[in-house]
Specification:
FAD/NAD(P)-binding domain; alpha/beta; five-stranded parallel β-sheet; 2 domains; 337 residues; binds flavin-adenine dinucleotide; 24 strands
């Protein structure tokens, strides 16, 4: 079990800035996020859209903001645990222990929940047996493409992820690209490439149809797809990849005994602590009178929450308010001296 000063749940813009505010106060944190990348809504929902209300940054995209926030916390060498969901929170005297779905455990006097609208999770195949094959023969993300070499792969979905992986994996495997509509949503360039590979017989496109059944006991032997006209086709398949987008689930957070209102966590606006001492909620996931779901509000919230985190993590030290421009200690922590 890893001991740390603060566990940050969520690597959205507010979770990232929490690392900064904790770091300049000399506190070490770990960050856990269910997504495979940092940035939360900014990177998942609007990476290319411009944001106009970040102070002193007249315009930047969701992706640029994420990169800037990430660069700003590099000096703290924070450990990130991505693709991991925090499932359990339990108390151990003055500390909190959290457990993730990958069985990692952390202990800390503070938890900052920067969970936004909940964890982003893949929309799963609703068919019987899908769960039994999950993470062995059915995947909702590709972590290591080597696994999919020289195989028969059935890819479901009509968006960028499905198309991009169809292109990539067609370099060394047989691909069936299956979509419930005739039209795909992708860049014209990607769509042209897919059409070219279809003509060359490297990708087989099946539309409009849906998964009907999976055949196989220990592993997948084949799948059957059902077309809109009722016709059923069996396809030899080793692996199924499904890209139906993400859903946001408040998930386990709702079961940690925190006071909640309308799927958000109730906090005080002095230090953004919840009804449990040492558990803080910031960003979109918190509510208090006058709360605005804006990135800049989240930045303010973590600045104040981190002060209380310091007091709990360093009970024998006095907290001293300092400016970054004049504090040698902060500048050393930022690697400037
Ligand atoms: C289209 C759009 C445009 C927007 N434009 C603006 C704008 O111009 N200006 C502005 O200020 N705001 C804007 N917003 C709102 C802004 O994006 C949010 O206020 C901001 O992302 C909130 O940040 P956050 O860090 O609190 O949460 P999020 O960005 O939602 O990040 C939360 C993270 O926590 C993770 N998580 C949750 N639960 C768990 C768990 N149990 N375990 C592990 N990980 C978990 C999630 O996977 C997610 O990555 C916009 C939002 C949208 C959708």
């Amino acid at each position: 079990m890893k001991k740390i000063d603060t566990i940050v749940i969520g690597a959205g813009p507010v979770g990232l800035f929490a690392v900064h505010q904790l770091g300049i106060k000399g506190l070490k944190s770990v960050v856990i996020d269910n997504l495979d990348k940092v940035g939360g809504q900014c990177i998942e929902l609007y990476p290319d859209k411009p944001i106009y209300d970040i102070p002193a940054v007249p315009e930047c995209t969701g992706e640029e903001l994420t990169k800037r926030l990430f660069d700003q916390i590099k000096p703290f060498k924070t450990e990130f645990f991505l693709n991991e969901r925090v499932d359990e929170v339990t108390q151990d005297k003055n500390n909190w222990i959290i457990k993730t779905n990958k069985n990692n455990q952390f202990i800390a006097p503070n938890i900052i929940i920067a969970g936004g609208v909940g964890s982003f999770e893949p929309r799963k195949l609703s068919i019987e047996d899908a769960e039994k094959f999950e993470d062995k023969f059915i995947f909702y993300a590709v972590k290591n493409k080597e696994k999919f070499k020289n195989k028969n792969i059935s890819i479901f979905g009509g968006g960028d992820s499905a198309l991009d992986w169809a292109l990539e994996l067609s370099k060394f495997s047989n691909i069936n690209l299956i979509h419930r509509r005739n039209e795909f949503r992708g860049t014209p360039h990607t769509l042209n490439e897919i059409k070219k590979l279809e003509k060359e017989g490297k990708i087989s496109i099946k539309t409009p149809c849906q998964l009907n059944s999976i055949e196989g006991e220990k592993d997948i032997k084949s799948i059957s797809i059902k077309f809109d006209d009722g016709k059923i086709e069996k396809i030899k398949t080793d692996f199924v990849l499904s890209f139906f987008g993400l859903v946001m689930k408040l998930g386990p957070i709702a079961e940690w005994g925190l006071n909640m209102s309308k799927k958000t966590i109730t906090v005080n606006s002095e230090n953004f602590e919840t009804n449990k001492k040492g558990i803080f909620a910031v960003g979109d996931i918190c509510n208090y009178p006058g709360k605005l779901k804006l990135i800049l509000s989240g930045f303010h919230e973590v600045a104040l929450a981190s002060v209380e985190c310091f007091k709990r993590a360093r009970p024998n030290e006095k907290y001293r308010f300092e400016f970054t421009t004049s504090s040698k200690t902060i500048q050393e922590r930022l690697g400037k001296k």
